[in-house]
Design goal:
Blueprint lengths: L28 E4 L6 E3 L4 E5 L6 E2 L10 E6 L2 E6 L6 E3 L2 E2 L4 E3 L5 E4 L2 E6 L11 E3 L27 E2 L3 E6 L8 E6 L5 E4 L1 H9 L6 H12 L4 H13 L3 E2 L12 H14 L1 E6 L2 H10 L7 H25 L11 H27 L6 E7 L2 E6 L9 H28 L4 H21 L6 H10 L4 H18 L6 H36 L7 H13 L1 H22 L17
Parallel strand pairs: 3-4
Antiparallel strand pairs: 1-2, 1-11, 3-5, 5-6, 6-9, 7-8, 7-10, 10-11, 12-14, 13-17, 14-15, 15-16, 18-19, 19-20
Helix pairs in contact: 5-7, 6-8, 7-8, 7-9, 8-9, 8-10, 11-12, 12-13
Length: 582
């Protein structure tokens, strides 16, 4: 697993980093689960536990033998050994029977009847432990059952409450004084990034506290009456299906079958996905067998040598020996092998993303294919990396295109140095196509790997949306007020313009492709003007993610004006829809 160079232990398994000096760092510890005052720092190579006073840690409990167990630190981390005790030593509920077991971060163990947990040290650079509440648990009082939603007399008297099935973690940041947390819905895989104030609100929601109570508690803590911010946070929690009890909120189960049907159609038109859940176990096994080798210093060096060497071979040698669309006499087998090679490279690309996620000890929840604006894409869900650092997310985002470029390098070397013929010609076309694929994935204007890496590097998660909004509204507002945009505003405006041009350019290419394919297929099968109607409908469906946004904006404007004309103030939370991407 990836380990910070300024930290000696793997937080997942407790293994010491090679060359680390553990005595110069805060030591791991055993913490009592029933007795909070029981703290056993593991500073020495061997720490003995028992009832006798001659042990390093004396446990005055009748179930503990005089010399009961010992914790040993070696080159692979920490392990606990049972010293043939009378009542036994158990790790994660399994009795050792005189044997030993490795200790990973968060491992629970029992020395006789004394329950403890093994913990690696944490600090702001590492981040807090993930606090997980499963779907079978809830922090809400038992007097408020999950099925009963409290009725609200108004926005301020509503009593919102948390739904079960969530995880919360403070994530390390490189900006001092600006901590942030990630809140995840473990049922749906939706992630929200929170600041200190939003975490305060989340922790204050208990099913009994009203929105008015939250307002005054927030004012007491932060010194301001910030109702719009509180409403926005509650709306975000509700949009992630983590909150119940807000005025006007309807759960998916309470919606009519017709409404659920149209919601499903709407989501499919925005982005149609076919995914396979439960991939984490298979990816974990692949990572344990061979995948980890690609993330060692040797593996990373070989990958980059493949990238650089391949570029030299392609542009320096292969281009002079091969020609595009010339398969060297391979016949029909040339395009067939080419298509198979592209599909295999696509699988390697997504597997590289998944293995990079596992290298940080996170989970790969699902993977599959999606259709966006009529164009097919493969994907693996790497959203669990929101529990990691932003640079770890950059590594995960770039691992896919770098693996594609490395494969292209090997194919380019084959095209450059194999004898001229069908094999070298097919390899040349494979290398050419994969280099184009790498450039496409590095394109920072589309929501692909390059864009994800750019947003994390710049610390602007919604870069496309913010830049486009500034170009459409903020820039002209500044110019009308005769305010000269600064360097950041100028960059946002330029990027926003590029995003708008690139998005509509991509849409035009997609529509032309579909129009060409459909036109050729419909010719002679459907009489005019119905062939034109069919093409127009398909193109409109392909362009749905683009034209639906202004339509929704227009509907919101009309509703707002109707509400103002009727004398009813429209609150920021009314009709709000929260959408999150990871």
């Amino acid at each position: 697993m990836h380990v910070r160079r300024d930290f000696p232990y793997c937080l997942r398994c407790g293994t010491l980093r090679r060359g680390a000096a553990p005595t110069s760092f805060a030591a791991p510890q055993l913490r009592g689960l029933d007795d909070p005052t029981l703290l056993v720092p593991l500073t020495g190579p061997i720490t003995t536990l028992g009832r006798g006073d001659d042990n390093d840690v004396a446990l005055p409990d009748g179930s503990v033998s005089r010399r009961h167990a010992r914790v040993v630190r070696d080159a692979s981390g920490f392990r606990i050994e049972d010293l043939d005790s009378f009542n036994g030593t158990a790790v994660a509920g399994v009795d050792l029977h005189g044997g030993s077991a490795r200790l990973a971060d968060g491992t629970e163990l029992s020395v006789g009847d004394v329950r403890m947990v093994f913990e690696q040290p944490r600090n702001a650079r590492i981040g807090s432990r993930t606090m997980v509440v499963g779907t079978d648990l809830t922090e809400l009082p038992s007097a408020t059952p999950e099925q009963e939603v409290p009725e609200a007399n108004g926005p301020l008297t509503a009593r919102p409450r948390r739904r079960s099935g969530w995880a919360l973690k403070q994530v390390p940041t490189d900006r001092p004084g600006a901590p942030h947390w990630v809140l995840s819905n473990t049922r749906t895989g939706v992630y929200l990034q929170l600041d200190e104030r939003e975490v305060f609100l989340w922790n204050a929601i208990d099913g009994d506290t009203t929105v008015r109570d939250l307002l005054f508690a927030y004012a007491d803590r932060f010194g301001e009456l910030a109702l719009p911010r509180i409403e926005a946070a509650l709306a975000a929690f509700a949009g992630a299906e983590l909150l119940r009890g807000l005025p006007g909120q309807r759960d998916e189960q309470e919606a009519t079958a017709w409404r659920r049907f149209w919601r499903a159609v709407y989501r499919s038109l925005l982005k149609l996905e076919v995914s396979v859940p439960g991939l984490d176990g298979a990816v974990t096994r692949l990572y344990g067998r061979f995948g980890w080798r690609f993330f060692t210093r040797t593996g990373v060096t070989l990958v980059w040598l493949s990238v650089v060497g391949g570029l030299v071979a392609f542009f320096g040698v292969a281009q002079g020996r091969q020609h595009l669309l010339d398969f060297g006499g391979a016949g029909l087998w040339g395009p067939v092998v080419l298509a198979a090679g592209y599909v295999s490279a696509l699988a390697v690309h997504e597997l590289a993303h998944a293995l990079a996620v596992k290298s940080y000890g996170r989970k790969v929840r699902r993977g599959g294919f999606m259709l966006m604006m009529g164009m097919p894409f493969a994907f693996v869900d790497t959203s669990d990396m929101w529990f990691g650092t932003r640079w770890s997310r950059v590594v995960v985002a770039l691992s896919g295109p770098v693996s594609t470029a490395a494969l292209a390098g090997w194919f380019a070397a084959g095209a450059a140095y194999l004898p001229v013929g069908p094999a070298s010609a097919v390899l040349f076309h494979l290398a050419f196509g994969l280099y184009l694929n790498t450039l496409f994935n590095f394109n920072p204007l589309m929501p692909l790997d390059g864009y994800q890496a750019l947003t994390d590097a710049l610390r602007v998660p919604r870069l496309r949306e913010e830049a486009s909004a500034y170009f459409r509204k903020g820039l002209w507002r500044d110019l009308r007020a005769r305010r000269r945009p600064g360097a950041r505003q100028a960059g946002m405006a330029a990027y926003g313009l590029a995003v708008i041009v690139g998005t509509y350019g991509f849409l035009v290419l997609a529509m032309l492709a579909w129009r060409s394919r459909l036109g050729e297929w419909l010719e002679g099968r459907v009489d005019p003007p119905w062939d034109t109607v069919i093409v127009a409908v398909v193109v409109a469906l392909v362009a749905f993610p683009v034209w639906v946004a202004p339509i929704r904006w227009l509907i919101r404007v009309v509703k707002r004006r109707r509400g103002a004309a009727g004398g009813r103030p429209v609150r920021p939370m009314d009709g709000a829809a929260v959408e999150g991407t990871a």
